């Protein structure tokens, strides 16, 4: 594995001929290089998280009442291990990560892993709900808009896209609460447990990604549909739907997939906000709590969790990128 | 993405669309009317920000507990003294919405400019030179993207003290990646094209190639990204303020007003709705302007 992780020398890969029999090897090498990058990203994130949270305030001061004496502060500091040298704390922390040992939460008095395990299902549920909404709405909307560009359908979709991209998730959430909870009494304004509780948060989180995916898919499809091979397919008598399905969507998916990978960061941010608006008991809400409680170990772990999610998604995006577009394989 | 022109000569990219010129112009006119409306609204926002003390009917921080949670003037129980009503501390909502433009505009433009400069430089270098600079820059980008900006913001605010400039700095420094990635991918597809190879062959320097041949070809996506980023930064600042992590409490921001207002949704919708509408309209207007910019800059999109 270790020699697979070695990167090719700079410049070596730029002029490599595209020999088909070497393609498999090349993909393998690229995958290995990407894995190495992913590990490096995680290590950097872990390090940045460790030092940043230590800049953001003294947890001992937050955990104790304001009139606590210096002695009491010292005792607590010692019992939390915060009086050890920074390097010891850092190495201890790094060594714990591969074993999924993130220490004990200062606020909950139990292992961080247990606190996280408690909250992850809620966030996964929210993300899954949002993903379903995104796919169900954005794929047809983007495709239809591209096929009927310039007409009323297209303009309607694009207006929706514009609105969706311009509206912050917490404002959408508040509007939905105002209409469906306060006004119509149809759905709960906050809480967790039933399908009805999921609807408003999932829609809130999905709005932005619906807009991004629909917009990109449309513009990408329009580009693809004006290409020569599409004209040829049309000339051969394929109907518009068949042309889009067989020739259009695969070629149009490349920029969409890339941007979806890039958008995972905003989606995670959106999840934090959405969970805050609806008091959704997930990792996002936990992160905000942990930050304001100065719960160092918990903040470090949630940051790592966010980073790991992002890294894994983008790893998949990169790999699918080279599968979708052979030109990328030879150009890099 | 969408902006690679089929003709490599940069000058040709600005040639007018000859066929169906009239319908295209008509459509652009219609679109431009929307853009004009957006620009007019933005002008209003800018005027509000610049002359807030002259325009606002009251001090945005003046509390009057006797007049708390008054509805807007047109509703039963409202009064002309507070056109948009008052919040939970009896502060005039219209004045607060007007003062809120200041933080939003400053953060939006400041962060986008900072991010644009960093991102364009990084993307050009990364895409043009490839190799080691590319790897290093893109790896920094990976780490940057994987790190939630909200947390970085809190750490910076906690360390340096809360304030407007730190929010701009954080959003600017965290926002460069999308510029860099788009510029890089455009440059990657441009650099093997004949006009670049030829320029290099006749001995044109790297800096000149980047400035004269690559930069003009990435301006269209840059303008769009830049404008969209202004909107994104406005929304990001509002989000931070909504979470209570943004600018200090005594500064009036739409995000903090929304957080206050959400507590009173059941009885007093106006406290949350007016700052929310202001935020949405501003962000919408900036996005419409961005689209219009792209249509002008990119003839391929213009013809659509």
Distance between the termini of chain A: 22 Å
Shape of chain B: elongated
Count of alpha/pi helices of chain A? 14
Radius of gyration of chain B: 23 Å
CATH fold label of chain B: MetI-like fold
**Shape call of chain A:** flat
Order of helices and strands of chain A: HHHHHHHHHHHHHH
Number of alpha- plus pi-helical segments of chain B: 12
Walk me through what this model shows.
The complex is a heterodimer of chains A (332) and B (304). With 332 residues, chain A is mainly alpha-helical. Chain A is 76% helix and 0% strand. In chain B, helix 4 (131-146) runs antiparallel to helix 7 (176-191), helix 5 runs antiparallel to helix 6 (164-174) and helix 10 (254-262) runs antiparallel to helix 11. The longest helix of chain B has 37 residues, at 93-129. Residues 1-19 of chain B have low confidence and may be disordered. Classes of the chains: A mainly alpha (332), B mainly alpha (304). At the A-B interface, helix 2, helix 7, helix 8, helix 9 and helix 11 of A face helix 4, helix 5, helix 7, helix 9 and helix 10 of B. Chain B: Residues 101-290 form the ABC transmembrane type-1 domain. Chain B: This is ABC transporter permease. Chain B: It is found in: Cell membrane. Chain B: It is a multi-pass membrane protein.
């Amino acid at each position: 594995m270790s020699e697979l992780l070695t990167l090719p020398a700079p410049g070596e890969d730029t002029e490599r001929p595209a020999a088909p029999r070497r393609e498999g090897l090349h993909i393998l090498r690229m995958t290995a290089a990407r894995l190495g990058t992913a590990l490096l990203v995680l290590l950097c994130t872990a390090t940045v998280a460790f030092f940043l949270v230590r800049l953001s305030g003294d947890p001992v001061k937050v955990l104790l009442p304001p009139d606590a004496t210096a002695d009491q502060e010292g005792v607590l500091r010692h019992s939390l291990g915060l009086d050890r040298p920074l390097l010891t704390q850092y190495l201890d922390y790094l060594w714990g990560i591969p074993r999924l040992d993130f220490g004990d939460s200062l606020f909950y008095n139990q292992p961080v892993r247990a606190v996280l395990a408690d909250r992850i299902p809620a966030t996964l549920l929210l993300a899954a709900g949002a993903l379903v909404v995104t796919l169900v709405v954005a794929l047809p909307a983007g495709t239809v808009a591209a096929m009927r560009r310039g007409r009323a359908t297209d303009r309607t979709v694009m207006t929706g896209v514009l609105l969706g991209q311009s509206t912050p998730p917490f404002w959408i959430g508040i509007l939905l609460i105002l209409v469906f909870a306060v006004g119509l009494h149809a759905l709960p304004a906050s809480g967790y447990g039933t399908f009805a509780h999921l609807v408003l948060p999932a829609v809130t989180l999905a709005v932005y990604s619906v807009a991004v995916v629909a917009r990109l898919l449309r513009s990408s499809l329009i580009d693809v549909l004006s290409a020569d091979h599409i004209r040829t397919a049309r000339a051969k008598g394929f109907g518009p739907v068949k042309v889009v399905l067989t020739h259009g969507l695969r070629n149009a998916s490349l920029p969409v997939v890339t941007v979806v990978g890039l958008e995972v960061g905003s989606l995670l941010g959106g999840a934090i906000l959405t969970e805050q608006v609806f008091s959704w008991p997930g990792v996002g809400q936990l992160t905000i709590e942990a930050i304001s409680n100065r719960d160092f170990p918990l903040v470090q772990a949630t940051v790592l969790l966010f980073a790991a999610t992002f890294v894994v998604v983008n790893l998949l995006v990169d790999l699918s990128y080279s599968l979708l577009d052979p030109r990328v394989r030879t150009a890099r | 993405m969408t902006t690679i022109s089929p003709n490599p000569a940069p000058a040709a990219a600005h040639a007018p669309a000859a066929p169906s010129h009239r319908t295209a112009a008509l459509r652009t006119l219609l679109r431009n009317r929307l853009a004009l409306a957006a620009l007019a609204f933005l002008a209003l926002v800018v005027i509000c920000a610049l002359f807030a003390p002259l325009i606002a009917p009251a001090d945005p921080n003046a509390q009057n507990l006797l007049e708390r949670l008054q509805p807007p003037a047109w509703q039963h129980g409202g009064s002309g003294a507070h056109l948009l009503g008052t919040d939970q501390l009896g502060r005039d909502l219209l004045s607060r919405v007007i003062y809120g433009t200041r933080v939003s505009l400053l953060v939006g433009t400041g962060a986008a400019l900072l991010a644009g400069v960093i991102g364009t430089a990084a993307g050009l270098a990364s895409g043009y030179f490839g190799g080691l600079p590319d790897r290093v820059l893109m790896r920094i980008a990976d780490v940057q993207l994987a790190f939630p900006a909200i947390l970085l913001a809190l750490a910076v605010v906690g360390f340096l003290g809360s304030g407007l400039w730190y929010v701009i700095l954080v959003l600017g420094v965290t926002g460069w990646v999308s510029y860099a990635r788009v510029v890089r991918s455009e440059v990657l597809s441009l650099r093997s094209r004949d006009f670049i190879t030829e320029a290099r062959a006749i001995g044109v320097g790297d800096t000149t190639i980047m400035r004269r041949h690559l930069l003009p070809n990435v301006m269209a996506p840059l303008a769009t990204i830049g404008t969209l980023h202004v909107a994104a930064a406005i929304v990001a600042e509002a989000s931070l303020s909504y979470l209570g992590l943004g600018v200090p409490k005594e500064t009036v921001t739409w995000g903090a007003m929304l957080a206050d207002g959400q507590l009173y949704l059941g009885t007093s919708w106006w406290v949350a709705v007016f700052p929310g509408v202001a935020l949405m309209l501003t962000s919408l207007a900036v996005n419409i302007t961005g689209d219009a910019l792209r249509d002008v800059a990119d003839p391929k999109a213009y013809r659509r």
